[in-house]
Amino acid sequence: MPSREEIYDKVKAALVDALGVDEDEVSPSATMVGDLGAESIDFLDIVFRLEKAFGIKISRGELFPEDVLSSTDYVTNGKVNTAGIAALKARMPFADLAKFEANPSVQNFANTLTVEDMVRYVQSKLAG
Amino acid sequence: MRWFWIDRFDEFVRGRHAVAVKNVSLAEEHLHDHFPGAALMPNSLIVEGMAQTAGLLVADAIEYNRRVVLAKVAAAEFHFDAVPGDTLRFHAEVLDLKPAGSLTKVKSTVGERVQGEAELFFAHLEPGEGVPKLFEPDELLRWLDQMHIYDIGRDQAGQPLARPDW
Which CATH superfamily is A1-59+113-128 part of? Predict the structure, then answer.
């Protein structure tokens, strides 16, 4: 199992290639959407690059839960409801959702995922 | 009308690679103003030609059962301008192909010189994913015939591609 640093470096390289950002823009606390400008199609590109870099298989919706965020079962009046939060936690145990829970508007979710979440995600995949 | 930015395929190996040709001519009206007295083919349209080459390669590999759209130009670099009289050859290679999308690399050359290089990412969308139907089957087949895909195309075992019965 590669070290956290090795994983971080490869995640960073994948983000630099996929998002066209400079290396110094990528930090553990940088948010994927707000700071690095990732759009939904970029997540598909990032999935491709992470799968290749780490030899892992990432299912659709695992890294960015578009289906949860657009489901009427999980979203009420533009906010993710209790069932939705539970679904997100089950889907994304690697992500720190505490801040998002305080104001779970769907629009806020974009600024929830950080580079560190990506690293934790890869760690969890490699461990599993 | 559709914009066609490739004239024909010279090589087509299913799911692997393809080479398409684009002849740049002063008969193309868009070159007259770009620029008067110094016509050159815009690199943005060269990207479109690259995307048509790689996009058909990918769409064929998934049997045209999803809508293949250019989702992003992950990287692009050009080394010199293509001008009337040049024959561009787009060399496309599939780097990664999955049900939801594909990553391709395309190089454009003029003679032996590399004119441009790009990494193109395609999304493969199901009906209902926000993109209207791109082609009627007979219209698509006419384009594929015009591109000579079933004249020169081969599968990975080297066998000729069967023309679909749409």
Answer: ACP-like (1.10.1200.10)
